[in-house]
Amino acid sequence: MSSLPTPSSSEKSELPIPQDATRIQKDKTKTERGADTHAEHASDSEVSHEDKPKLHTSGKPELTEDDCYDKLGFCFPTWKKWTILTVIFLVQMSMNFNTGVYSNAVPGLVEEFHISEQAARVGQCVFLVAYAFGCELWAPWSEEFGRWPIMQLSLFLVNIWQIPCAVAPNFGTIVVCRVLGGLSSAGGSVTLGMTADMWEADDQGYAVAYVVLSSVGGSTVGPFFGGMIGQWLNWHWVFWMQLIVGAITQAIHFVIVPETRATILIDREAKRRRKEGEDIWGPNELKTPRLDVHDVLRIWIRPFEMFIREPIVLFLSLLSGFSDALIFVFTESFSLVFEQWSFSTLAVGLTFGSILIGYVLAYFIFLPDIYRQIQTRRKSGAASRLAERRLLLLLFIAPLEPIGLLGFAWTSMGPPIPWIAPCIFACMIAMANYAIYMATIDYMVAAYGPYSASATGGNGFARDFLAGIATMYSTPMYQNMGSKYHLQWASTLLGCVGFLVLIPIYVFYWKGPAIRAKSKFAQQLAADRDRHTESRRASQARASVGA
């Protein structure tokens, strides 16, 4: 699953996506992380100790990011950042593996519990729908109590719910535990948030692209390896394998990943300084109550409010959701399509490799574009920060989705057409799916600044929710649409819809600034930026007087 402007402090607690708010930006070249940058911030921190510390409303001195910048995730060595991010990559893959591998248990569930295939797919549907809500539910807790404990708790609960699924005496047990497992999945609300903990807004492109690859790739790795499970093992092993993968992932996360949330690290530094005799307190230590119910409800509601009221969020989220739903339609339709070539369960699973290849290709296509954007921002500054620039590459890649669907449709006719033909078009669809997720996240972060967490939250919700619904209609659609060419007409319909949902991309590219100018969130963002500008000027003036 694709960051930018600095958020206001009032909104900081809700941001699981690319930005953390109050860090200073004293040097435009501090994106070059190294010893010089580390020393610079250490020096800044020493200077701040000579000044009078910021006083909280309670009257106690409060430690800020400016005072201990060198202790935060932004100053981690590059190797440490990417080690952490690689573990997060595995975590995201593990969670999305759970969404995709379930389809391989359907035949066994039908035989074991004497239910229809459509009824058996309910387990996958409810997991994805619950996953959509789970990502939103976990967000404020990770902001308040830290990324590490929340991710550990999420992984633990997800793993626990695999056990009753694996030994379920009836199908109802599986459905209930799948719902609980979906709600327990923190997903992108934490993983993307950790990129904001370690990279400045203008430098997050590579990290976000990496996390997005894990998000889209995990749902395809499931059926890829699920084919092997279905070939040699019974349905119980679909859930045991989820438990094994989840337990290994949790152990790696437990050992390797430290806390990255800025407010938690500031609290720890404040406690350390108090032991040395300094009277200083962290932001969470001074917050009463620690987690306000009103704030939590506001954070939970805002993504849905923006989804309904903001045209940009609505249409791009629907596009992203439609694109992700296609992958789960493929999960259900591949067995119908490739049985025409007499593929075994294992062989059908391996055909999902074409989708994985498409994701990897799209990832590498985006890397030069990310580099270009970074260089442009460094050379041109604020003049280059127009949000619509983030959609430029998508204008060319997005049409691969409907083109791929139409090509997949009319090459899915069995011999004498070679089986590789529909795989090639599936690869094209995957490239477009990655590009849509990456670019829409990147664009909404740049467009909505402090409200980007809510905007991208709506995006993620749409992807998971629509994917869950897709698992219920995909197979009936491919089996019953038309007569002789039912497989072909189903994909053709999706391709035609694909052309329609692409239209907003081009509208927002050309008319985005005018649309955002009418948005209450964009107007609030402009006011926040003005306040930040005045604050920075005042800070610079005080620094000049002190010098």
From TrEMBL:
Positions with biased composition (Basic and acidic residues): 23-54, 528-537
Principal location class: membrane
One Pfam family of this chain: MFS_1
Compartment(s) of residence: Membrane
MF terms in GO: transmembrane transporter activity
Biased composition annotated in UniProt, kind: Low complexity: 1-10
Cross-referenced InterPro entries: MFS (IPR011701), MFS_dom (IPR020846), MFS_trans_sf (IPR036259)
Protein keywords: Membrane, Transmembrane, Transmembrane helix
Domain Major facilitator superfamily (MFS) profile span(s) in chain numbering: 84-513
Membrane spanning residue stretches: 207-225, 237-257, 312-331, 343-370, 391-413, 419-440, 461-478, 490-510
Region (Disordered): 1-60, 528-547
Gene Ontology annotations for the cellular component aspect, listed alphabetically: plasma membrane
Protein's UniProt keywords contain Transmembrane helix: yes
Membrane topology qualifier: Multi-pass membrane protein
Protein name as annotated: Major facilitator superfamily domain general substrate transporter
Origin species: Penicillium brevicompactum
